[in-house]
Amino acid sequence: MEVKDWQAALRAELESRRDAARATKMQAYMKSKLPYYGVPGPELRKLVRGLAGGLLFPWFDSFNAFVRTVWTEATHREEKYAALTLLDMKQTRAFHTMEAVPLYEFLISDGAWWDVADEVAAHRFLPLFVTDHDAVVEVLRRWSKGSDLWLRRSAIISQVLRKKDTECALLFELAEPALAEREFFLRKAIGWGLRSAAKHHPKKIQKYLDEKGDALSGLSRREALKGLVAASEEKAVKKVAPKKKSSRTRGV
C-alpha cells in the first residue's frame, strides 16, 4: 500500500471517531499547535495496528521514508502518534538497529515535546543497549552535551525501563551536563532517571545524592527519594512476607 493511501485510510478512521470536546481538552493539555481528533491513546494504537497489519517493508529505507512521511504530513497530533506506533509493529522491529537512530533523533528533535521524546527514548533504545551498546552510548553522550533540549532529556531518560540492567555510572554521566540547568524538563528527567534506578540500585543512588548535595535540584532530589522509598518499602514487604510451604513430601 502506498503511504498516501494509508494516510487517507487513517484519516478517515480518525475522522469517524472525532470527539470535538475531548479534542479541545487534549490540545490544551499538550499545548499543541496541531489540533486533535480527540481519539484516546489506547483506541488510537489499536486502530493503527489494525490498519498497519498488512504493511510490508522490504528494507529499512522504505520503512524510514514511510514513517517520516506520516510524521511530516500530519494534520493532527494523532497522526504523529500513529507514526510513533509504526515503530512498535511486529513487522518493523527488525529495523530497530543503529541505522534507525537518525530517525529517532529526527522524531525527538522535530516533535520537541515530552510526549514524543519520552516515548522514543524510553522504548527504542532498550534493544540497542544489548545489540550495539558502545555505539548507542556514544550517541547518548553526544546528545547529553548538545543544545537540543529534547535530545538532552532523551539521553537522560534512555534507561528508565532497564530496571536491574540500569548502568548508574552512565546515568550520572548523562545527567551531569544538565545539573546546573534550571529547565524543568531536564530537572524532571534527572529525577525520573534517578527514581527508576533507585528501585534496583538504592545504595548507588543514595551515595550519588549524598555526594551531589545542593548541586542537585530539589525537584530531581524529590523524585529520586520516591524511588528510594519504594525500594525500602519493597524490601520491608519481602522481609515480613510469609514463606511459602513446600508442596513436596519429605521422606521420613
UniProtKB/TrEMBL annotation:
<dbReference type="InterPro" id="IPR016024">
    <property type="entry name" value="ARM-type_fold"/>
</dbReference>
<protein>
    <submittedName>
        <fullName>DNA alkylation repair protein</fullName>
    </submittedName>
</protein>
<dbReference type="Pfam" id="PF08713">
    <property type="entry name" value="DNA_alkylation"/>
</dbReference>
<dbReference type="InterPro" id="IPR014825">
    <property type="entry name" value="DNA_alkylation"/>
</dbReference>
